[in-house]
Amino acid sequence: MTEQLARLNRLPLRDDLRGLTPYGAPQLDVPILLNVNENTHGLPKSVREAIAISVERAVAGLNRYPDREFTELRDRLAAYLGHGLTSENIWAGNGSNEVLQQILQAFGGPGRTAMSFPPTYSMYPLLASGTGTRYVTGRRSDDFGLTAESAAEQVRAEAPNIVFLCTPNNPTGTALSLDVVEAVYEAGAASEAIVIVDEAYGEFFHAGTPSALELLPGRERLIVSRTMSKAFALAGARIGYMAAAPEVTDALRLVRLPYHLSAITQATANAALEHADALLANVEDIKVQRDRIVSELQDLGLKPAPSDANFVFFGGMEDPRAVWEGLLEAGVLVRDVGIPGHLRVTAGTEPETSAFLARLRELLAAGIR
Ligand SMILES: *Cc1c(COP(=O)(O)O)cnc(C)c1O
């Protein structure tokens, strides 16, 4: 046992938190960071300036509490998402992780169950344990796919209160077809399951891949979660949001902390949304690099999963740890997500992506794979 864990265990900690480790990817100081799916492009100068002006204005009113209902932000998010949504359908938090936590606080908790289909986002079990929600896992096929039939059958068998579907899925990058969402929603009717579709990477879908936002009308247990951390290059600002039936937002009002979205956060998000076009132009650039990674890895004899996200999950290696280390020696940090034979790499800028591919080519030529 580490000294840290021993110290922790001397505290009167909740039994269900004993032995847990906090979420956290290694944060190493290297030149090319392709490990946590951040937007590598940064904010365009015009957007930085607009945010600074908007925040400056908010600073003048910091003696007052912020708009508790973040009305302007909800209006802007509804307009951005389209699909006939209005501010009544929108809720936001300090990152989509906070919104997910609020959903678990409102609909999960002791005696209730949340379900997901690993490999998927590693925060789901942590959010469940933090809220005292039992966490169960379903199965995917050997190639990490999930069919409507299989997902629905498993949901029927578990009768969970909450189901997480992540699309494009992290860490595999692959999108779910909407028939899976529909089938899970129907299968969850018996247990009145809240179905959360986590579209954190929704803006990176290939053209023509539909969003689960299409399915919202008439489905009051469906929630589509989004974030400004990835496509909008605002991971540091902490802004996530969801779209759902108005009664779902009312449920989240019961558990949110008062004034949870600071005036600074609201000002930042509003300014960024006003410049969505400039930010989404970078998304197109990242998608080009993403598709390039998939095709070049294929050419190198590796096995990249199809990706609709800003990252690529790839297998076909015997010793991914050696590949990870070889990349790091060249200043390129990728993610070992703990799945045998696989690594995950974020699509970077053109030069970053080139550096990653060049180093990988070198390693393979040296017999490291
Ligand atoms: C990055 C990510 C998020 C976003 O989290 P924020 O709290 O909004 O930064 C949510 N879900 C998944 C699957 C992610 O990969």
UniProtKB/TrEMBL annotation:
Broad enzyme group: transferase
UniProt xrefs under Pfam families: Aminotran_1_2
Enzyme Commission designation: 2.6.1.9
Domain named Aminotransferase class I/classII large: residues: 32-359
Keywords: Amino-acid biosynthesis, Aminotransferase, Histidine biosynthesis, Pyridoxal phosphate, Transferase
Catalyzed reaction equations: L-histidinol phosphate + 2-oxoglutarate = 3-(imidazol-4-yl)-2-oxopropyl phosphate + L-glutamate
GO biological process, one term: L-histidine biosynthetic process
Required cofactor(s): pyridoxal 5'-phosphate
GO MF annotations in UniProt: histidinol-phosphate transaminase activity; pyridoxal phosphate binding
Entries under InterPro entries matching the protein: Aminotrans_II_pyridoxalP_BS, Aminotransferase_I/II_large, HisP_aminotrans, PyrdxlP-dep_Trfase, PyrdxlP-dep_Trfase_major, PyrdxlP-dep_Trfase_small
Pathways per UniProt: Amino-acid biosynthesis; L-histidine biosynthesis; L-histidine from 5-phospho-alpha-D-ribose 1-diphosphate: step 7/9
N6-(pyridoxal phosphate)lysine: modified positions: K230
Subunit relationships: Homodimer.
Family: Belongs to the class-II pyridoxal-phosphate-dependent aminotransferase family. Histidinol-phosphate aminotransferase subfamily.
Official protein name in the record: Histidinol-phosphate aminotransferase
Native organism: Arthrobacter sunyaminii
Lineage: Bacteria, Bacillati, Actinomycetota, Actinomycetes, Micrococcales
Gene: hisC
